[in-house]
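Following up on my earlier thread - several people asked me to post the actual chain instead of describing it. Fair enough. Here it is, all 289 residues.
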Amino acid sequence: MLRTLSRRLLIREAMREDKRGIMTAAEAMKPLTDPAKENQRLRQHLALSYRLLEDMKLNEANCNHLTVTAPRRDGKGEIMLLVPGFVESGGGLDWSQVTASSLLGLHEDGSVVEGDGLPELSAASIHLGIRKENPGARVIMHTHTPYATALGCLEDPSILMVHQNSCRYLGRVAYDTGYQPAVAQEEGKRLARAMGNKSILMMCHHGTLIVADTVAVAFDDLYYLERACMTQLLAMGAAGRDALKLLPEDVQESTRATIIDNGSLEKYSNKHFYSLWNKYRQQSSNVFN
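Reply from S.P.:
Thanks for posting it. Predicted structure:
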């Protein structure tokens, strides 16, 4: 009898969740063919990323930007989703308040075709410009996380292979030392050229740029990049740069391969991101609305 009652309670709970339209993690991982549904799925992923970076204090106020390429709700081509820089009631939108429905959809010319508000100039400039140079950049995350940004302000901003987190980025990082204010799409195109075929760009004197195929991988790369930079700077602060002990080159490569190759990057990125999805879903957070 108790078992039957427990089963009924679980079914009721599942029905309540389904009515709210919050997918399970297993469902959320799978792209959808219907444009409107896929648009909503990607909105939920991106909105959650904004919330998570706010929770982890890995944003700088609301001046950083995360974007994803998504189908338009009406199926007429693709748009770039991002948080509004300015809302109609005045000011911007704090990342703790971002929801799926609050995101803007931009046409490639920068005009707003979904949502209310206006994009921040630097967000539109960097992200649209990068996509014009690199149309395959599905997800782009640009932040000013403390340790990665600090490392980018050194004469030599190289990520050194001193820790297993560092090895995750072996051969995946480009460095741009030609800082310019991002106020036009040409700057986004320049950054894309500086990035080349890498997935990480250290934007020296500015921040970092992550490009990935999925929101989960971009988020995980951003998180562990900050951890790698933190470990390096703390070790340098403790004993100086010359005291750093690099891992042997064969260990660097084997560690990179273990983390990145044969589907491992996506598998463990999903493990991280969707554990947080599950947390917010259990809390019935409005981020998915």
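The chain has a mean pLDDT of 92. That should answer part of your original question.
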